[in-house]
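Fig. S4 source data, part A: sequence.
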Amino acid sequence: MTRAAVDGPIRIGLTGPIGCGKSRVAKRLRHQGATIIDADRLAREVTAPGMPALAAIAERFGPEVLAGDGWLNRAALAERVFDDPGELRALEEITHPAIRPRIMAAFEAAAASSTRAVVLEAIRLVEGGYADVLDEVWLIVCGPDQQRARLVRRGLAPADAQRRIARQAGLVERVTPVATRILDTSGSLAETEASVDAALEAALAGAAG
């Protein structure tokens, strides 16, 4: 259950499978004046060299998840955890407590601004427990052909693209029960932008009402 709307900017969460257009939707919302909180960017910040979370990750998973320059080797860590639910939980037990205060601080900063909406973009939005502090949860989806094609255009080999998609099996089913809106980005960019604009106006109208 999402929070009841309160005074201040509406809080919207964006989540959905890889390659389905979360960043595209976030970009359009930014264009429309929303403040964007990128959970992945915050994850990079809390795992930078010298940060406690990075030291904890290295201790738990071993020095092989560190690059030669001391930064986190995200590809190596992904190979280690994303096919193993237990290892993924262990990673999240380190990272989520470090990221959450930054997300909540960003919400507070947005509340003091003139923004109409503050948007949290996060792949693990529901698992991270953020649905309860949001007014709306938007699930971003697309057709499987579009999803694979977009990942390949990013430079992934088809087999790697399919492997990443398979890793997120069940995400849509897990999020659907708490989703306020489901946006399908399978169409053109113009169609996607129009659907984002309509969804934002409906969300703002609902909060105002």
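Fig. S4 source data, part B ends here. The chain has a mean pLDDT of 92.
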